[in-house]
From TrEMBL, chains A, B:
The gene is hppA. HAMAP family: PPase_energized_pump (MF_01129). The record marks 494 as: Determinant of potassium dependence. This is Putative K(+)-stimulated pyrophosphate-energized sodium pump. It is a multi-pass membrane protein. It is found in: Cell membrane; Endomembrane system. InterPro entries: PPase-energised_H-pump. Belongs to the H(+)-translocating pyrophosphatase (TC 3.A.10) family. K(+)-stimulated subfamily. Its EC number is 7.2.3.1. Requires K(+) for maximal activity. Keywords: Cell membrane, Ion transport, Magnesium, Membrane, Potassium, Sodium, Sodium transport, Translocase, Transmembrane, Transmembrane helix, Transport. It comes from Flavobacterium noncentrifugens. The chain crosses the membrane at residues 6-22, 58-76, 82-103, 134-159, 245-263, 275-299, 319-340, 361-385, 405-428, 435-456, 500-519, 531-551, 599-620, 632-649, 705-726. Residues 792-803 have a biased composition (Basic and acidic residues).
């Protein structure tokens, strides 16, 4: 029997997309200003589109290449269906579509925000946040629509829309992993490429414009100024959107995989009102309701007072955010209660099958919501304006750039302490509550309000751009003051948003990691095996080298920009007097080309290493797939642990330097003296910020993608290494489990009990082999067989254990 | 029967110490100069002693506290003997003694080198390298004497000097671990405290002297100048010495533990010419012969030409180094061939017991020698004067401090790539050759020439100090030219020395890690268990936070120094005119106090976390020691992986910045123009070097100790969590192994074979349970039992497998 529930998330996604369309129409209906404003905004819009077009052209090649590779895999591996290629292409397409939509609306909203700021602050917030909402709902709506839609199609294709077996469902989910892989691949290039683009344009514009030519920032005479503004959209809007799109999809997918595993633990079949797939549908349902609550949340974000300050704007955002989170928590309570069996069975290492009440899954989801918020708060503490760590960096600026840099590095490094402890506590507690399904549900709950998070995130760069347009169009000062308030709040939300993105990426990777282990069918990943340990080291190194490559890429791309701007200053007559027109398009092109060229190497590193490890493993160990799977697992763990650390370190160090520099704008007290912009201390802080820029906008955020994509690639490779490849026929309903217990009978005897359990479509047979050794004598072996249903056999085994 | 071989290493150690004494007498007999030279050198000597005294006073408290804690452990855990406390105290004492000796000779040699440089370069090298030799042989001699001596005593006390069982030997080695723990604890404080001291004095002296007062470096009017010179000795000589002393002892110990495990795998007893403990004696023998070869190597280090340049001096050092390494390789061949059974049995995961020829252990030791050299070379490539990466940083200095800092960070980060790959390859290949015993032997071979390595290391700071004394005493220019040549070579050897120290620490930790697993008796460390994974994350975070604390400590300690120097400049009349005498002692005292105060928090972090994890685990899981042991193992792995990465990153970034700055002394070509000291690019490079200073001299080198000490603490805690506590009676010669094989018989049948092997003092019984499932039918189970010796049973199993 098929439940209507399976269609609910799609329905919610469509509501979300409908609401988005309405909002979009409303935003586009707003006055887009006139004259210079419109001209500049058009440049930015076209520049952004030009980047997207060039990027998509390149990505098309990648998608074709990767599709061929995937088709090859599906040909070789019997359990991998050719449809994975279709899923992959659609995943890539949906992600690109979401990015495209987001960029377009963001670049359309900025000028409208400027125009709205000419009337009032509440109106400016309404417009800019409206743009953010469109972005957020677009990403979330497309993600849920695509993933759920594909699931329904595959469920019908492979299983006829009714439950058959966990093995068939595994096949469905393995194919669905293609969708997630496609989305995350696009995210890699969007994040890395966008990150390089935005910083190359920024540095290039500053170095030649501000430093060499001595003209102010955002001056229209600077040929790179449009590229700089495009960069904000390319990096902060499209990059972040693709990142969260990927996390969102991957989290739900991983939770579904683990839900299937729960059903397996419960004997391969459950009876519920949802066609026996309640645990698999639950994460999708949470995602669907999350869209609804995000809509409600966004409707609450408003202010009425034109004289409002940052605090009120922040409060309005917070209210919307917390309401959507609270509603999600309530929904989780009901959804978990309704969709999961009241008592589930889950296998825990060393403890065997355990009864888990569904409420424990709810608690796990609460922990997910809490940790998302807590990690965001920690991020804000280490990077926010006026916080203790940032003020400490300000103080250290008085003794020069060297001490400023050291203080910023140390702040980023120390910030890993609470973040990692929170994260470790989340892993541990959610697992203790409900196994890896609990971990995945925690991640799902956290990601449920992605639409709201993205709306808050995207409104920042929109306001930033709006301010830039106001500056370039020489509008009255009060306009800039209003956009500055929004921009300032946007900086805070950007920092917390980065915290959220890391937390989500980390939990997502963990869930994927768990899904990987169940897909490959290995017992675990034993790092005491030397090849596995070696790969743990290699995995740990990858994020470090990736970050370095990304940082160097920014440097190289920036140099391309510098040469181009210099050329234009020299060759275009009258450019400095404002009579000659700079070729903005050339700079956009240069930045685009450089970003695309430079993102190749990190991309190859990310995608190539897992594949190289499998090939190497195959060469050395041949058919010992178990060991190769463990090696790849060790690599994935290394990337995740090191990636989370370097993400937190780089993002927070970068954020702290940025705000330490910004502190000088309002003036800071150093050694009893008020110090302002232009002072030596400020110059030192500027140096720190230069170091921090690629940290927080390029290499830091790329870590999220790196860890998720690594785990996803592992997941897609998993079937090749899976136990159910060699013994494909065997898995048909047969499940053998070996339990060894060591029960010393008395002081001079030792007893070794080996239980081998065979599960054939629910009929369980257990063989108990007992070896007794008395007083160093000969070992005596006894064998006993118990048969019946899972529950009966377990009961008998329990009785035997007591003997 | 006891073999004479057990006394050979002690004999070698005594030869080493005798040679050291002779060399020491020769060095002290050299002319120590006169007047101002002597005065300055006396100040340095006294300052160094003052630091040591204060440090030892503090450490005495620590040793007492730790001894009480250890006594508590030995009281609670039946297999831990109270003698561990004695071993601990002796380990601490020997390490402190070695450090003391090294510091004394280094501070005595520097002025004698200056004096020798007045006559000729060959003589200056002879004296400075003579001092280094004393240091190297002192450390190595005391390490081997202490460890081997204690082993013999414990072997006689616990086993009566003859082989009884692997369990008794485990007790011996567990107690011996106390010696290593004592040595490493002292190393922690010597490295961290020394690192903080040297940079605090350096920065303090520069900031007030050079920048504020405008007097040159090493100017005797600067009150902090003596503290600065003391710092070189405290950090580079004593810190490095204690570090390598610790690595040396820990490596040999870990190899011995794993040697005992080899004997266990071979049935708990072997027959050889060494009383049945050949595999345990081998690492000690290699260490002993290594001392001999180091002596030979040091005798080859000489030049004859007074007009020699850096290249010739470097060549002389290289010849000595390579000869000692080559001799060690040859010795390994004979020792391995003689001391190990021709064919050994070792358990490999998933492959069961395997026959391993002793030559494979020799190949593993060759890999160790190779990797030590290769990692040193990689370090030199990324940090050496005139190398591509360093020149790239120089180029980036032209666009300011920001780009210089980014380039330096990126260089350090990228340098982890070859280093980690080399290291991973070493783990993998040495394990494949001869299990974890192979890994430990590789480390032992690498560490065998520690005396030579230290001699080369210590000669650098001695020459540096000699140059400083020449400067302060206003000696003729040719003296400074000669010491500068030595100093320059010393900088290169310092970089490669750091590479060697990291490589040794990493391999040592790995060997300790393996020893830990065997001590606790767990099957492995499964990071798919959520609590274990959580601890992997926590462990990964510790090196990052530790580094940040160390860096901040330098900042705080430097500020103390700044205030003191400012005070003296203000309060002492005539100090700037050279008529008033600065209070050097006060500065030494300030630096000492600050260093000791600031090393507390990182120390507590290092020692406290493993203990906290065990306590937390006990609270949550009660008696599930297996899980707690795995959690601690996960933590250790996290610290090691992350620690190696951060060590390489920080050391190499720091080294690269340093030499990028130094490049400006001879002038560098930037954008087609020769650029020198004092240019803007040079100022940017100085900023980079300021950031790099705590990286390479404080936090980076501390990582070595952090990872080794973490693994050692784990090793000492291991018996508490060990399987042989709860089931102590059972392990008496009984060894049960469960092997599961999955052999699909045909397309429609599946076969599951579970083999349970019981080994009672060499008599093996295997039970084979076969479960067949045909066409989804009922499972059919068959049981067979095979008995006999290990070899017979294995043969029968092989035959059965073919069916």
């Amino acid at each position: 029997m098929e439940s209507i529930m399976i269609y609910v998330p799609i329905f919610m996604a469509i509501i979300g997309l409908a609401f988005m369309s309405a909002k979009r129409a409303w935003v586009l209906k707003q006055d887009a200003g006139d004259g210079k404003m419109k001209e500049i905004s058009d440049y930015i819009y076209e520049g952004a589109l030009a980047f997207l077009k060039a990027e998509y052209r390149l990505l098309a090649f990648f998608v074709v290449g990767a599709s061929i590779a995937l088709a090859g895999i599906s040909y070789v591996v019997p359990t991998t269906h050719i449809l994975i290629v279709v899923a992959f292409i659609f995943g890539a397409f949906f992600s690109a579509l979401a990015g495209n939509m987001g960029m377009k609306i963001a670049t359309k909203t900025n000028v409208r925000t400027t125009q709205a700021a000419r009337t009032s602050l509440p109106q400016a917030l309404k417009v800019s946040f409206g743009g953010g909402t469109v972005m957020g709902l677009g990403v979330a709506g497309l993600a849920v629509l695509g993933l759920t839609g594909f699931f329904i199609i595959l469920f019908h294709l492979f299983m006829g829309g009714i439950w058959t077996s966990t093995e068939d469902m595994t096949k469905v989910l393995e194919t669905l992993a293609g969708f997630s892989l496609g989305a995350e691949s696009i995210a890699l290039f969007a994040r890395v490429g966008g990150g390089i683009y935005t910083k190359a344009a920024d540095v290039g514009a500053d170095l030649v414009g501000k430093v060499e030519a001595g003209i102010p920032e955002d001056d229209p005479r600077n040929p790179a100024t449009i590229a700089d503004n495009v960069g904000d959209n390319v990096g902060d809007v499209a990059g972040m959107g693709a990142d969260l799109f990927g996390s969102y999809v991957a989290t739900v997918l991983a939770a579904m995989v683990l839900g299937n595993y729960v059903i397996k633990d419960m004997g391969g079949k459950i009876e519920d009102a949802f066609g026996g797939i309640g645990p698999i549908l639950l994460p999708m349902a949470i995602a669907g309701f999350g869209i609804l609550f995000s809509i409600i949340g966004t409707m609450l974000v408003k202010i009425t007072d034109d004289n409002a300050k940052e605090a009120q704007v922040q409060k309005a955002l917070n209210i919307g955010n917390w309401v959507s989170i609270a509603l999600t928590a309530v929904a989780c309570y009901f959804l978990v209660g309704k969709m999961l069996p009241e008592t589930m069975k889950m296998t825990f290492f060393g403890e065997g099958l355990q009864d888990i009440s569904s409420m424990r899954v709810f608690y796990a989801s609460l922990i997910g919501l809490f940790v998302g918020g807590a990690i965001s708060s920690v991020t804000e503490y280490y990077t926010g304006l006026g916080t203790k760590p940032v003020l400490a960096i300000v103080q250290k600026s008085s003794t020069g750039a060297g001490t400023n840099v050291i203080a910023g590095l140390a702040t980023g490094m120390i910030s890993t302490f609470p973040t990692v402890l929170l994260f470790a506590a989340a892993i541990w507690s959610t697992y203790a509550l409900a196994g890896f399904y609990g971990v995945a549900l925690a991640a799902s709950a956290m990601m449920a309000t992605t639409a709201m998070q993205l709306a808050i995130d995207a409104f920042g760069p929109i306001s930033d751009n709006a301010g830039g347009i106001a500056e370039m169009s020489e509008l009255p000062k009060e306009v800039r003051t209003r956009t500055d308030i929004l921009d300032s709040v946007g900086n805070t939300t950007a920092a917390t948003g980065k915290g959220f993105a890391i937390a989500s990426a980390a939990l997502t990777s963990l869930a994927l990691f768990a899904a990987y282990v169940t897909f490959t069918g290995i017992d675990g990943i034993n790092i005491f095996k030397a090849p596995v340990l070696a790969m743990l080291f290699v995995g740990g190194m990858i994020p470090v080298v990736f970050s370095a490559l990304a940082m160097n890429s920014v440097g190289k791309a920036a140099m391309d920009m510098v040469y181009e701007v210099r050329r234009q200053f020299k060759e275009i007559p009258g450019i400095m007097e404002g009579t000659g027109k700079p070729e903005y398009g050339k700079c956009v092109e240069i930045s685009t080309k450089a970003a695309l060229r430079e993102m190749m190497l990190p991309g190859i590193l990310t995608i190539g290493f897992p594949i190289a490890i499998v090939i190497l493993g195959k060469l050395v160990y041949g058919d010992n797939n178990q060991l190769i799977a463990e090696m790849l697992g060790g690599y994935m763990a290394g990337v995740t642990v090191s990636g989370v650390l370097w993400a937190v370190f780089q993002n927070n160090a970068g954020g702290a330097w940025d705000n330490a520099k910004k502190s000088f704008e309002a003036g800071v007290m150093i050694n009893g003296e008020m110090t302002y912009k232009g002072s030596d201390a400020h110059k030192a802080a500027v140096t720190g910020d230069t170091v921090g820029d690629p940290f927080k906008d390029t290499s830091g955020p790329s870590m999220n993608i790196l860890i998720k994509l690594t785990c996803l690639i592992g997941l897609v490779i998993a079937p090749i290494l899976g136990g159910h490849v060699a013994g494909a026929e065997k898995t048909k309903g047969v499940n053998v489990e070996v339990i060894t217990t060591d029960a010393p009978a008395s002081k001079n005897t030792s007893r070794e009990v080996v239980v081998s359990k065979t599960n054939v479509d629910g009929k369980v047979s257990a063989t108990i082999t007992t070896t007794m050794v008395e007083n160093d004598g000969e070992p005596v072996t006894q064998t006993q067989t118990v048969e019946g249903t899972e529950a009966e056999v377990n009961k008998k085994l329990e009785e035997l254990k007591k003997q």
